[in-house]
Amino acid sequence: MRHYILALVTFFYCATANGQRKCGTAEALQQRVKEIPSLQNIIQNNENKMMLGQQRQQLRAMVEAIPQTVSVPVVVHVVLDNPALVTDAQIASQIDALNRDYNAANPDISQVPAVWQARIGNSRINFCLAQRTPDDEPTNGIVRVQTAAGQSFSISNAAADAKYNNTGGSDAWDHSKYLNIWVARLSGNYLGVAAPPGTGYPVEQEGIVVQYTAFGTTGSVGSTYNLGRTATHEIGHYFGLKHIWGDDNGGCTVDDGITDTPVQGDNTYGCPSFPRLDNCTTTSPGIMFMNYMDYTDDACMHLFTAGQVDRMRFVLENTTASLITSNGCVPPVMVNNDASLVSINAPDGKICNNNITPVVTLRNRGANALTAVRIWYQVNNGALTSYQWAGNLASLQQTTVTLPSSNVAIGSYNLKAYTQSPNGQPDGNVTNDTADIRFRYDAEATLPFEQGFENDSFPPPGWDLYNPDHSFTWERVRNVGKGSSASALIRNLGYNTNDQTDDLITPVIDPKGADSVFLFFDVAAAVFTDPAATGNAWDTLQVLVTNDCRETGQVLYSKWGPNLITRPTAVQTEYIPTATEWRRDSVDLTAVSHKGKFQVAFRNISNSENNIYIDNINIVTKSVNQTLREKGVLVNPNPTDGIVWVTFLEIPEDLLQVSIYNVQGQFIMSRPAAAIGAGNRLTFNLVNEPNGVYFVKLIYRNRANTIKLMKVR
């Protein structure tokens, strides 16, 4: 994995002292800007927009009535090896603390020095635990996910791993309707990290992550950060606030963009006494260390200023305005009979035979148990197919249902399914009855098969892409190829993700009983890291073959690092191969093709090195020698002048070894069955043996077979 050496001054700064408040927001954002430098412009434009917005907000406050009080729905994802460590009561205590802090109703606000009492701001933002899910079902707003024992999450990408089911975390709820808070064990002694909107994070990562021992005011919370101020601080970042010292690393030329917070040189730890002076504010009343956006202990944090409130209200009412209109705080009204189709699980995407058997997920969203429902499906505008389901599905439970199969021709399709008459009654909510999905059935290919990516369509007709993270994947690149005008490329240089898999998959190929099948392709690749480095995680190119539409696959080719690259030196800019930097590789597909129809997948496993190209893919057949076909084994050439090959039509399961003896019965040489290589072949070298008669003895578990061999010059 390549290493970046890049300095960046960001608008968040977090200290690193052990045992003191430690925020991961800045470092996470730094990492993203290093990976995607264009984000710096996005961040700066967002800052400019907030500066103008808070000024407009101040003008509004002068002429308009007090802003309305709003409620923001919150979903709390507890992602721990023991999620019970954070109780419902602890979560409720955090929501209560937020409501006090954001409405200037915290009892310790009286400790704000008199000189700043007039600057205290009231955001009139309330927070509630969500009362309905994104699918309009009842909820308590708490999701608990159990991780592996002792698992903690890095603040990299704002602790992104905590935010996805497939990385051991919990998927966000709709960011437009909910403020997502993840409560987890953060590594590196961090208390929290925010992914604010407008800073280039994927929307499903927006929200905050809080160390579980600094969340709420009771339960597993620690002794220093026990008033819920870590969440108050991180949500301040979420709504656009900088740290009060201006994030300029101790300088006095940049402040936090808020006019009613004093200029401050650096963060403040612990519980200092008032007044506190520093290099930027050298006279009383000094710096506002009791502000929620400083680094003091929870017991010494007391206020947001009116200027900070103006910025937060601007972000809320403009960048995240949909939170204001969300119905997440309102419990849904359940009807008695409500059968819903959550999804269609199959068919999906590319299918490999023309017989489809739809599988759907049926959910009971009604108050009554669901005992019967009619399910219909339709392919394009074809005839309706029905299925009468019967069972006993409790309220808010779901099950998979397999529907009757049908056949389709070659083409692309939309499959729509819907429910009707739950428990023999009218459905109380028809808005969730229907689900649909797209799939296609492509024409099969025959041998010989060629693909040079010369046409603009990508993936080519009949091909498919597997791109599970919906990020970088295989693409067509023009004007780069092995004697051609295009090739397939994956940009590992910009794909800053470890061990992510992406497949480029051929159509289904019918070998039609071919004796032997071989794949040939051109490859060009480079690495970012010195190829001589040891212990490095390299990009990997694999060739897999599947006979069951990717349900399973066999790896027949795997190369990485020095074994893969075609430029022998590290390349730290985007690699584009020269005409001579291509290599022709081959793979024997015979064993898999004998199982029937197959697909070939070119798999990239990224470790952030550099680009990999493939071109001029050819899959061809070769005829089997008639003797090999009849006897199952062939010794050739016979006579030989030295090199002898023992080739098997199929590798015998009971073969132990192959030995060679001279005419006097003296042992010459032997090779074990495990040494059989490409082409089902063992190689022997008799160059230094005298001319004459030899015997090739095939030794099986319970038998033997001898073949006469002549050596001549």
UniProtKB/TrEMBL annotation:
According to the entry, every stretch annotated as the Peptidase M43 pregnancy-associated plasma-A domain falls at 170-316
Q: Which UniProt keywords apply?
A: Disulfide bond, Hydrolase, Metal-binding, Metalloprotease, Protease, Signal, Zinc
> What biological process terms from GO does the record include?
proteolysis
Could you tell me which residue ranges the Secretion system C-terminal sorting domain spans? Answer: 636-708
**What molecular function terms (GO) are annotated for this protein?**
metal ion binding; metallopeptidase activity
Q: Which family is it part of?
A: Belongs to the peptidase M43B family.
The protein's name is Por secretion system C-terminal sorting domain-containing protein
